[in-house]
Design brief:
The chain is α+β, with helices and mostly antiparallel strands. The protein is about 45% helix and about 15% strand. It folds into 3 domains: about 5-135 and about 205-260, 2-Layer Sandwich (Gyrase A, domain 2); about 135-200; about 265-300, no CATH class. The strands form 2 sheets. It has a 5-stranded antiparallel beta sheet with strand order 1-2-3-7-4.
Length: about 300
């Protein structure tokens, strides 16, 4: 269950209470405010607050006042120009704050994006819940034979069942010992800040994560990519669904130029030019390594 009854009651209360405002409001963002989008088996992403919209990006780019818009078409065209030419500061005028519940090992990947403000649930002060990420059977995969940090084919049969049993049993046993160590029933009880070291990396944590749109899109470009680890990619996908409604022009440009586009090296571009002239280009005469050539052909195909 991603949300406790107390959390759901809080969300229902927040959504039932409205306040008058003079600030810019994005209707697409309003529908997502406080709503928890389930991710994995116990996780979620929910928008807590936001600032700005597509018009704010254009306003900053034109350094004007008021709405800063000439027309809807001009705004969309301007945003596409900014995205196409890798402008950054206009997109930094928009910010979003998310409440995320996620496994610790996903959080350790996520925190590598250092361009955000983060406040995480404290296991020094509070006791973590007995909630662990246990992959669905189809998410259990062998090590990739071509990518040292990727997955290969899914495990099957007895091996898959054994792995699932180990993951579940080990997590439960670690939590049992955690509870036993911090208990003050007939003993002093180990400090929570020490006992937490025995908890597995698949236990769930929570944090508030605030980031501007420019850095959020960089995060999504990497983590919503098909090559990203599945467990963080599903969080990125959930965030994409929010951003798509919040800043539709910016997200459409991002989807076109970043998610759906490709960056080519000078060598790769020269190979394309040779191909267009009818020349047969192979890995051996391309000037690329085998890995570069494989990636290049993946883009073309």
């Amino acid at each position: 269950m991603p949300l406790t009854s107390e959390q759901q009651a809080e969300i229902d209360d927040l959504r039932s209470t409205t306040q008058p405002t003079l600030r810019a409001v994005a209707p697409g963002a309003e529908k997502h405010l406080y709503t928890a989008h389930p991710v994995l088996d116990h996780g979620f992403v929910r928008m807590v607050d936001y600032m700005g919209d597509d018009a704010a990006i254009c306003q900053a780019a034109r350094v004007s006042y008021g709405k800063g818009t000439k027309s809807v078409q001009n705004d969309e065209g301007l945003i596409r120009y900014l995205m196409r030419h890798w402008h950054s500061t206009p997109f930094e005028m928009c910010e979003i704050k998310l409440h995320v519940k996620l496994p610790v090992f996903v959080a350790r990947q996520w925190i590598r994006h250092r361009t955000a403000n983060v406040n995480e649930y404290s296991a020094r002060y509070s006791i973590l819940d007995r909630e662990f990420y246990i992959p669905a059977p189809d998410a259990l995969a062998a090590q990739s034979v071509v990518n040292n940090q990727g997955r290969g084919e899914a495990l099957s049969g007895d091996e898959a069942q054994r792995v699932l049993r180990y993951l579940t049993d080990d997590a439960m046993r670690c939590y049992d010992h955690y509870e036993e160590m911090i208990s003050q029933d007939g003993q002093q009880g180990l400090a929570r800040e020490l006992a937490r070291m025995n908890l597995p990396a698949n236990i769930y944590t929570q944090w508030y994560w605030k980031v501007d749109l420019h850095n959020l899109l960089h995060f999504l470009r990497l983590r919503a990519d098909a090559h990203a680890q599945y467990e963080i990619r599903v969080y990125a996908d959930a965030i994409c669904s929010i951003v798509r409604d919040w800043v539709p022009f910016a997200y459409s440009a991002f989807e076109d130029y970043r998610l759906g586009g490709a960056t080519l090296s000078a060598t790769a571009l020269a190979c394309i030019q040779r191909m267009l002239k009818g020349e047969e280009v192979t890995q051996e005469n391309s000037g690329m390594s085998k890995g570069e050539w494989r990636e290049f052909m993946g883009v073309l195909e």
